[in-house]
Amino acid sequence: MITKRIAIASALAAFTVLTTAGAAFAEAGIAKSVVNVRSGPGTGYAKVDSLYAGEAVNVLACNTSWCKIEHDGPDGYVAKSYLKPAAATPSSPKKDIPFNLGLTFGPGGPAISFGIGDAPLPAPIPVPAASKACFFKGPNFTGASFCVPASSHDNHIGFSWNDKISSIKLYGGAQVQICRGYNYTAGCAVVHTSKPSLGSFDDDTSSYQAW
Fold it and tell me: Is 39 in contact with 75 (CB distance < 8 Å)?
């Protein structure tokens, strides 16, 4: 019960996922200015496209900060503050796009559903992991660890972690380059998937770049 309450609180506090709604429930929107389209509702998710100022989009769902959009390009999530309803004018502003929320639990953990207006909620999907990389001192993702979001880097790993990384776990499509020397020198390798063992790089990493 405690675990379930924590999961509910985390999911509701972060609003970490917006699910796909049917096109019939979409609202027309316009980009106020150039803005990134991301793979998830947050700046920690990868950039998949961008909108130009005045570009028309279909807004499928929103929470207080992010909207799930469709447009002529890769679909994704845009910061809500960069969007406005298509019909809005200075003399006749349109109300903000409404949304409703549902939260369910299943074998895979919590799932959230968003819908437009009073339409029925679409089927929920699992909450996706944020794009990040986690480093472990032990093999098979054991021992002490630390995690960084995608787009992080460190050209000089501190003494407590230098040459002490043995496994790396990736989330949300993140990748990481690890190098034996400081400033990304002395031989590097790109890790595309989670690695329970780093092979020749085991306990031999002094700098990294994640994206």
Answer: no
Total length of the chain: 211
Token pair, residue 10, equals: 């985390």
- Taking the model in full, what pTM does it have? 0.44
The token pair that represents 40 in the structure block: 């998830």
In order of start, what are the domains of the chain with their CATH numbers? 2-126 (2.30.30.40), 132-210 (2.60.20.10)
Burial bucket for residue 159 (CB in 10 Å: 0-12, 13-18, 19+): exposed
Within the chain, which residues score under 50 in pLDDT?
1-24, 88-89, 91-92, 99-109, 116, 118-119, 121
pLDDT on residue 16: 40
* CA 198 vs CA 116, 146, 204: distances in Å: 46, 16, 9
Cα separation, 24 vs 114, in Å, equals 14
- Give me the residue label for tokens 């998949």: 48
DSSP letters for 87-134: T--SSSPPPPPPEEEEEEEETTEEEEEEEETTSPPPPPEEPPPPSEEE
